[in-house]
Task: structure prediction
Amino acid sequence: MSLRQKTVRVETHSVTVVRTNQRPIDLWCETCGTTTAMVTPERAAEMLETNPRAIYQHVERGNVHFIEAGAGELLICCESLGGETKVKALNSGEAQCL
Ligand SMILES: [Zn+2]
Result:
């Protein structure tokens, strides 16, 4: 499946990206129709207390908004991660989306 290929490639590519993109980036989300905080799949996985593969599954299913940055890198719309995610993130006191 292309999903697996993309996952491997992005994870490899993200070794550097994750470090430089710890904080959300404000970018335009077409689905939201506004500027929202965007995070890397790895960061989204941390916020969901899951692994990046689960995030890619959400992407494939259309459960979350995302944009494709350069080099096929995905950025996930925090708004689309939903309320329960925010609650978890806020509870952790660390992975704030906004
Ligand atoms: Zn969105």
In short: The chain has one domain: 2-92. The pocket of zinc ion is lined by residues 29, 31-32, 36, 65, 77, 79-80 (CB under 6 Å).
